[in-house]
Amino acid sequence: MAARAVFDEMSGHDGQSRDAYRVLQDWLKSAPPHLLEHRREEAELFFRRVGITFAVYGNTEAEERLIPFDIIPRILSGKEWKRLSQGLEQRVKALNLFLKDIYGPREILRAGIIPPELVYLNPYYRPQMHGLSLNSDIYVQVAGIDIVRVDDQDFYVLEDNLRTPSGVSYMLENREVMMRLFPELVGMQRIRPIENYIDELLGTLKSVAPSSSPWDPTVVLLTPGSLNSAYYEHSFLADRMGVELVEGRDLFVRDEMVYMRTTEGPKRVDVIYSRIDDDFLDPLVFRPDSALGVPGLIAAYRAGNVAIANAPGTGVADDKAMYSYVPDIVRFYMGEEPILKNVPTWRCREREALSYVLDNLHELVVKEVNGSGGYGMLVGPHATVEAREHFKGRILGNPDNYIAQPTLALSTSPIFTETGLAPRHVDLRPFVLTGRDGVRLVPGGLTRVALTEGSLVVNSSQGGGTKDTWVLSE
Amino acid sequence: MLSRDADSLYWLSRYVERAENTARILDVAYRMASMPISYNGVETNEWESALVTAGGIDQFRAVYGDATPANVIEFLAFSEANPSSIQSSFDTARQNARSVRSALTSEMWEAINSAWLDLRRYRSKKINVEDLPRFLNLVKEASLRYDGSAMRTMLRNDAYWFSRLGVYIERADNTARVLDVKYHVLLPQDAAVGGGIDYYQWAAILRSVSALVSYQWVYHQNLRPWLVADLLILREEMPRSLAACYAFLSRNLDDISHRYGTSGAAQRQARATHARLANQNIEEIFQHGLHEFLQDFLAENNRLGQAITNQYLG
Hints:
- The structure holds two protein chains of two kinds.
- By secondary structure, chain A is an alpha+beta fold.
- In chain A, the strands form five sheets. Chain A has a five-stranded mixed β-sheet. Chain A has a five-stranded mixed β-sheet with strand order 11-3-2-18-19, with helices on both faces.
- In chain A, helix 3 packs across helix 12.
- The radius of gyration of chain A is 22 Å and the shape is globular.
- About 2% of the residues of chain A have low confidence.
- By secondary structure, chain B is mostly helical.
- Chain B folds into two domains: 154 residues, no CATH class; 159 residues, no CATH class.
- Chain B is globular.
- The chains are: A alpha+beta, B mainly alpha.
- The interface between A and B is medium-sized, with 23 and 23 residues.
């Protein structure tokens, strides 16, 4: 990977303005000094009033917090997006085929491409899904693929989120805010719209309804409830789609069919857009102590009377150990070279890799294979010697649980600070929808940005912020 | 719609209405307490009647003891131990609003959320009696804004009707309590309690349901205690009267049953109470005893709330 200066999305490696950012940069030069500060305040007021908040686990002081929003957009050219979207489509198609195979004939295991224990011993592998023929053959209806870049050539996948990826509400609201705050700037170029995401999502969900459901299937969004960190998003999506936002206690199963309790009595449910972990879906099958789920749901699902999106058991394909095999998965099912690159990954379960990782902790990022949200990871170059030694112990205690990657020189994008524009590291999470009728992808995604200078951690739970993401038309 | 959502909407509206009612009660206590004793007829502790009207006097005594102005304001406006304090009411309202976000219009949500944020600023600092009117005004305006945005922006469907049911059940309860706490000053003049000197008490009753000016427009004469009772119990044109609340309740329940194609105990009960209020006159009520009438009404109103819950929200 690149050892030269960090690649900036606006000014490249050499400070020259890149094409996609030219209009923005000219506009910024001509903007009156206090305009940006003023608009930033307006944006914050907007988010606060609308109540777009985010709960942070383990932080009772600030039960609800705003995710910081930066007003400088992140921009991709039409050409960049075209390549990226082809790569995303290829990757998600392959992952869906992989899941169908894993829970079916298991050809990829027989071909010796993936070690079977990575599947069978994976905590997210669901034997209940085995041999189940899904009406649509789609396991992952909604994927959030985290993308980073280090230069203007390649896109790297950092993580595949195939369970309950969140963040799309920020993608949509960020655009709304930008249209309100910067009409003049927005009007100066052709930005591809994203507001159709809601329609595409609903279309995708309806397309996977069981064949026995009526012409216009009933879709619901299943949330763990208002204490969940992504609750705002759940209610936002349900509202925009015009579907009920249900909790487990609103649903019940009778004769292997799912109903919701309404003011008019029980109403049949055909498709569940689930935003709760598999573990909590059905206390009869998964965690018996779960109060969030619906007893009998999996039986109804197995009987083909309800669709669940994403399917239970998709987590087997998105943990960080499986991640390192995704390029092979793409080659195996698609017969093509992967368009998107993987970040080189050392699997600590492999002896040679483990000793390399332990010797080079100071320049690696080490992650738990099932972790998310930036919890339980070590950023070697930024950690103290003691922290690294401590982490070494944890790795040795359970090497299978860890992977390591080089610390990438993630690209930066300018943000607005008290002292003017300053570069900060960013990633991008586009959302890939897959229905019975194919893949749908709105041009854009959620750009997350590390607000602290030099920081590489963009997670909102760790103080990261977001930006609007513009894809220009070609 | 989901029963749980309907339940949240119903309670959301009840709590916003409750916060406003408590604010009015405090407002009146503040006015009355600042009047020379001779104007009140007998020596009364207006702060204590405020507690009785708003409910929770036993709980108050256990925690605070004396009904001093500061204690009562603290208990009714801010106390977290009092689930019906203005602050707690807005906390509960907002919690319900959050859990039913997708059934609210953005205007309603913003009304609740910004009121909650505004009120939070008062929580930390001790409020002086002089600051009270400004605070109470804020509460009343928040409730008006919520009510106004509900009326102006909600689709006329079951979500709207369930939220209105909450408003009117709570409002009827409040009006009946306001009357009941002061019923003795409304008894006929020759009775032992009260006298012409109760003028300010009658005015206070009207003011606590913002009906002082309406009274003049309806009756065109000086305050008469039986007319005050008439206005607040039987007059449908007076939006906080028991009759008006029941006109709205039975209409909203009928709207629901038309939409759903079935009706039940809640509809029958609301219609019966509404008819009874429409067919009675104030003399009969006084003959049978105002206090008994109000106590019966409060119990009946409670039963209707329970019937609505059983039929739709459970």
